[in-house]
Amino acid sequence: MPTVLGQNQYGKAETRVVRVTRDGPVHHIRDLNVSIALSGAMDDVHLSGSNARVLPTDTTKNTVFAFAKEHGIASAEEFAVRLARHFVTGQEAIGTARIRIEEYAWDRIPVPGPGGHSFVRRGRETRTAQVTFDSGGAAGERWQILSGLKGLVVMNTTDSEFHGYVKDRYTTLPETRDRILATEVNACWRHVRDGEGGGGEEGKAGWDERYERTRGHLLAAFAETYSLSLQQTLYAMGSRVIEQTPGIDEIRLSLPNKHHFLADLRPFGLDNDNEVYFAADRPYGLIEATVLRDGATAAVPVDLTNLP
Amino acid sequence: MPTVLGQNQYGKAETRVVRVTRDGPVHHIRDLNVSIALSGAMDDVHLSGSNARVLPTDTTKNTVFAFAKEHGIASAEEFAVRLARHFVTGQEAIGTARIRIEEYAWDRIPVPGPGGHSFVRRGRETRTAQVTFDSGGAAGERWQILSGLKGLVVMNTTDSEFHGYVKDRYTTLPETRDRILATEVNACWRHVRDGEGGGGEEGKAGWDERYERTRGHLLAAFAETYSLSLQQTLYAMGSRVIEQTPGIDEIRLSLPNKHHFLADLRPFGLDNDNEVYFAADRPYGLIEATVLRDGATAAVPVDLTNLP
Amino acid sequence: MPTVLGQNQYGKAETRVVRVTRDGPVHHIRDLNVSIALSGAMDDVHLSGSNARVLPTDTTKNTVFAFAKEHGIASAEEFAVRLARHFVTGQEAIGTARIRIEEYAWDRIPVPGPGGHSFVRRGRETRTAQVTFDSGGAAGERWQILSGLKGLVVMNTTDSEFHGYVKDRYTTLPETRDRILATEVNACWRHVRDGEGGGGEEGKAGWDERYERTRGHLLAAFAETYSLSLQQTLYAMGSRVIEQTPGIDEIRLSLPNKHHFLADLRPFGLDNDNEVYFAADRPYGLIEATVLRDGATAAVPVDLTNLP
Amino acid sequence: MPTVLGQNQYGKAETRVVRVTRDGPVHHIRDLNVSIALSGAMDDVHLSGSNARVLPTDTTKNTVFAFAKEHGIASAEEFAVRLARHFVTGQEAIGTARIRIEEYAWDRIPVPGPGGHSFVRRGRETRTAQVTFDSGGAAGERWQILSGLKGLVVMNTTDSEFHGYVKDRYTTLPETRDRILATEVNACWRHVRDGEGGGGEEGKAGWDERYERTRGHLLAAFAETYSLSLQQTLYAMGSRVIEQTPGIDEIRLSLPNKHHFLADLRPFGLDNDNEVYFAADRPYGLIEATVLRDGATAAVPVDLTNLP
Fold first, then answer.
1. Is the pLDDT of residue B113 over 90?
2. In Å, how far is B87's CA from the nearest CA of chain C?
């Protein structure tokens, strides 16, 4: 046969599960979008159509709902670890499971009295998690746990310059000493794990706390960095997370430069002293980089936009 | 000629203007998406292509930027009133101007020290405004000022029932005494105006305060209503706004019923006591209604999804 | 009570039904997205939550599937007529039904042999239909049947000028004698009906043929009009449809002016003789108008973007 | 310093260029969306904000427009090769350039007479290309040329079965001997290159012809495969491309299983002999695999959704 099968994976994508936990009149919710990708000894189904080793994607979806009931959802990371372990240990043909989760945050609507079952969606930023578990054969089990966020839109209205760059035949951009710097933060960080996915320092609340702290570092570094380039701001954001978080060794950031162009008001006899801007959609600069703890090995995928 | 020209309008849609106001080290921003529609004596341009009465859409875009500089943006409503008046009074051929604005909210990123130029986008809910000004000829000027919001996603995890409905041959839905009620609030309310658009009780801050109060009423009524139908909840939301706000006579609500179906866990030997739900995308129920102050005349468009 | 209920409607939106008809080895498909809005005597459900007059939206969804089986889908228009009549005549509380349908077109994939069950989606243009049936009480039944399309993107690379327009203080646009004219055609036309919705000249195939002829007129008029303004092109498109189609009395067109700006290559020592363009997203001009047969009364909604 | 910089790249994303070529009254157009990512010796800009080695992303955008003028756009692949070579050979600091292009296809609108400057967008399928050029240092230059498509939606209304799969505790899916098989083909194939990017068999028209042939193989294999699993269909599609095209050694396919569920009409006393389906949005199965020529080494990225 002149062709062979390469890397392959399958599973159910975008299962939307909402888990309600009732603590008397006070309810708690977790709202997730779960995507499962399984891989292993799957030559037969590709070559002959035999499904003898195939757990249906419908079953992987059912498992999400059943596990939400049986085990609850303490956090996206913990839920993903549980699912990954289940598929790899439960199916002989499956060697690797990758669980990607988007989580949508809700705030409580304040109400009089003791209740607490009313919520409002928090906004556009989406929290993400990705757990990959490889049974590893003789090499032993390998876990990778990534957390992240996407769609966190931020802006500095000053303290950003851009000058001193290379000029070639096609360069027309004027240098600037004061511009708007705006971006949509897409980030993915890798947790240090020395045991299996479920172990480590993080307990039930640990993943949520670490997420909030990491998000806070990203915002603070963005706001507090006097920027000579978006790359510099990116590096400041990434290194602050690494330096402040012993359990995180690597972070990947993808920062579209959301250009705000000064409106040209001179034809109307008006100055524009950095007051009126046109917010452009496309094209946009795209600045991407990984920041690592010294000595760590990079493992976060280079292209973030498909996480999860 | 067997054909005639009916209603027509033109203008520049979706001009994205960001206005920065500098108060020493503290900056303030307004972030708008402005769409302009002008109409009037425009037969010639349709029938012969003569542009002699046509102010280019490019000019209407320029006017947005110039006005942002010259007058600032105290609020979306006030800015829309100013633009509407300008086009109708400044161009003989223009009899009516309709200005639609989406506004995106930003929160401050807290930083040490006295500064304040760092912001984070608040979320998915979008504030809207629509001002229509008709010069009116002999009938005199007419103003209509609408405010609203879209994309405010809310959920009650209990205190919602649905039963006692009509059953016909095609009815299979089981009745329920406890369900999730979730929707995305799209709302548009009409302000009472007895003078021109720029007058009235609202000053620079008035429109923002009224918006926040109205949003609060919508959330509170959603959370506090024990619901027998989404229509009942809708009416409670709308009537609360009218009753609590003397300056608002009418509100239109469009509430998609974002269905959350109980996952069927019985095949796995598990109960599901309103704990695990599947959040469905389509189809969805769509509940729409206008609530009016007794004696008021309806004027808000029936279809909200195109506002602005 | 200080508040009253105004216009209201409810139903299931976006039911995605695919109907396969098997003609031996040759299959035919219809792929629809159906949205139902019912209105009538619905005060109780809003005021007290009583569902005694409410047919569940779930039932309206079931009806779509059941009717697809029982009656087939000869065309979107015919299917919508049938659904509208069913809800209005079958439910005492329902006085008006509005059925909106999007239809997605598929082409056959050519295969050897006699079969014919493989298809490829045709593209971005979506065919639309909207049928409104009002039982009318003493005034008698009223039907309105609209057909349309959205997302038909077209471009002329020459034979478009724009000059001779009004200049005010904010005008900077240079006049041009040769530009790209590109738009996304969104159109909705109203059929003359002298009987009930199901009657008239159109049979099973009639609606499809009329759609294809109307689409052809729109494309031909766009391509063959030497344009001095997009309004002129719009009117040429609309009047051609009316003049060529006795059964259509009115058409509404919404044409975003998809700007293609000449790239400025002078800084690089290059001419740009209408060869290289930047295709902009926002803002865009938006040109909208109704064209009517002389003597007809306008009835198509002014805002098309919400159809359906 | 405890942190170090890992993989990084930057450039302008989504530059929308339209190129018109005038052949007397007949015009030809190319409509591209170009994204550029450059990488190399970029430590300084991240660590200190020095832009001394940074060619602005604005310049990379300008280069797209200038090259469209100077060299025309014979094909997306050829244009990407030219851009990649320019950035790597022209900037000492740049070691690698990755050019991603989406191309939108247009058909001619037929008109009487000799002209030909009117076009209609063909549809939803988007053609893609990605060229990566690495100067390689001592190892010598390396080129990778990928072509692909996304959004090609296809459906077989029969000749698809699914049974014989693994059942575990969470399996509820009934086996089926006749179902709809529908998917959206996302594909990326790698061209064999033994010289630099600009060489090889493909001339000006070669890339377009190869694209059409490859697309045709994908459609034919989808239509002609009697399917026992979507994996089997995927492999048939991929191996057909490899077997029929000596210049292609590898193809990656990402096929969402767009589920069409039989509507349950039994409650209404109706059969549903594979006639009426509900087209679901989410969740969906996602089947992904690489097919290789025997002996070839896989190089196409596993995650296609970010190409380009």
1. no
2. 11
How big is the CA angle at D10 (ends D6 and D14), to the nearest 5 degrees? 140
Question: B158: which chain A residues are within 8 Å (Cβ-Cβ)?
Answer: 27, 117
In sequence order, which ranges of chain A are alpha helices (DSSP H)? 43-47, 57-71, 76-90, 206-224, 230-244
pLDDT at residue B203, as a whole number: 55
CA A186 to chain centre: 7
Report the percentage of chain B scoring pLDDT > 70. Answer: 94
Phi, psi of A84 (to 5 degrees): -60, -45
Same domain, C114 and C202: yes
Residue B125 pLDDT greater than 90, yes or no: no
> Domain for residue B289, yes or no?
yes
What's the pLDDT score for residue D193?
Answer: 73
Burial of D274 (0-12, 13-18, 19+ CB in 10 A): middle
* Number of Cβ within a 10 Å radius of residue C260: 23
Q: Based on the fold, state whether residues B254 and B115 are members of the same structural domain.
A: yes
Query: B20-71 pLDDT, tens per residue?
Result: 999 998 999 999 999 999 999 999 999 999 999 999 999 999 999 999 999 9
> CB of A10 within 8 A of CB of D286?
yes
Tokens 């499904």 belong to which residue? A51
d(CA D72, CA D60): 17
Q: Which two tokens stand for residue B136?
A: 């009116």
Closest partner residue to D165 among A54, A291, A292, by Cβ? A54
Question: What one-character-per-residue DSSP string does B105-134 give?
Answer: -EEEPP-SSS-B-EEEE--S-EEEEEEEEE
DSSP annotation string for B52-92? TT---HHHHHHHHHHHHHHH--S-HHHHHHHHHHHHHHH-T
Q: How many residues does chain B have?
A: 308
> In the prediction, which pLDDT does D295 show?
95
pLDDT at B209 over 80: yes
Residues D153 and D294 in one domain: yes
Find chain C residues with C-beta within 8 A of D109's C-beta.
Answer: 154, 219-220, 222-223
E strand segments, chain C: 3-13, 15-23, 26-40, 94-103, 106-108, 118-121, 126-134, 142-156, 181-191, 248-257, 260-262, 276-279, 284-293
Q: Are A23 and A78 in contact (CB under 8 A)?
A: no
Residue A140 covered by a domain: yes
Cα→Cα distances C14→B91, B234, C35, C61, C306, Å: 43, 21, 5, 9, 13
User: What Å distances lie between residue A150 and A155, A185, B80, C229, CA to CA?
Assistant: 15, 6, 33, 42
CATH of residue B116: 3.10.270.10
Name the residue facing A279 among B18, B62, B117 (closest C-beta): B18
Number of domains within chain D: 2
Size of interface A-C (CB pairs under 8 A): 9
Q: What is the set of active-site residues of D?
A: 12, 57, 259
Residue ranges for chain D with pLDDT beneath 50: 195-201, 306-308
A90 and A114 fall within a common domain: no
Picking from B57, B81, B104, the residue at the C-terminal end of a domain is B104
Nearest CA-CA distance, residue A117 and chain D, Å = 26
Confidence (pTM):
0.92
Q: Give residue C199's domain range.
A: 108-260+279-306
Q: Give D198's DSSP letter.
A: T
DSSP secondary structure code for residue D174 in this structure: P
**Model pLDDT for residues B270-285, shown as the tens digit of each residue:** 999 999 999 999 999 9
**Tell me, what amino acid is at C270?**
L
Same domain, A146 and A254: yes
Same domain for D130 and D164? Answer: yes
Q: Is residue A240 part of a domain?
A: yes
- Mean pLDDT of all residues in chain A? 92
- Quick one: pLDDT at residue A108? 93
Choose the final residue of a domain: D104, D122, D144: D104
Q: What is the ipTM of this complex?
A: 0.91
Asked whether residue C100 falls in the same domain as residue C115, the answer is no
Closest partner residue to D268 among B170, B267, B282, by Cβ? B170
